[in-house]
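Attaching the record inline, Q. Sequence:
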Amino acid sequence: MPLLVGLMLPSVVCAQGPPGGNLVPNGSFEQAAKGPNTFDQIGFAEGWGNATLAQPELFDRQASAKTVGIPENTYGTMAPQDGERYAGFMAWKDDQRRDYEGGARDPFKPGWNAYSEYPEVELLQTLEEGATYEISFHVALAQNSDRAVAGIGALVSPLKLAYPNRGFLKERPQVVTEEILAERGKWMEIKGTFRADGDERFLVIGLYPTAVFETRRITEGADNQYAYYYLDNIVLRKIDPVGP
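Structure, as predicted:
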């Protein structure tokens, strides 16, 4: 079942926009300058980069299974949702330190440094003021994740984000899920609609704790202390409401 989030409009809709309707270039990461051979190479996918110093991954069938291969890689085993490649981002690295007062029940407490990755791309067109848009994308929690989070969403920004840190973004996204996405190894669709201010040009996907930040430990065996999500099939379309 898709996750319906954001400002949902009760109407029949008709897609508009460029050929194919999708304003996201290379939304399934199929076009790449070259194949990745290690971590932090989202920039090999044409048009894509990162909104902070933390760099997401590009996954490829020809890459090593020890790092960013498909279907097997460092984070788990996953086939693409669409096409032959996908991306991935660390939504949350649970930076913990020993809590000597917490006892055996809760021996850890939050550390000092937040860490999160944000894939970013420039849209094919600037959004139109007052127009309604629908965005959808697919994420899957990697099997080796021992954390899961709510607050995965999509921000459409008038400015290209380039923060000199590796922490959480403080912006509020147009579309976000309040559900903790805790099922490992399954593609889940996040989908919602919103009205544009008219100057948005850049799309940033990731974790938005200013909107919602709920976490869950799902530790089995060794604790990797992270929530890592694969990302694929990103679509942003202009739609026309029809009816009451």
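The CA atoms of residues 81 and 232 lie 6 Å apart. DSSP finds no helices and 18 strands in the chain.

More tomorrow.
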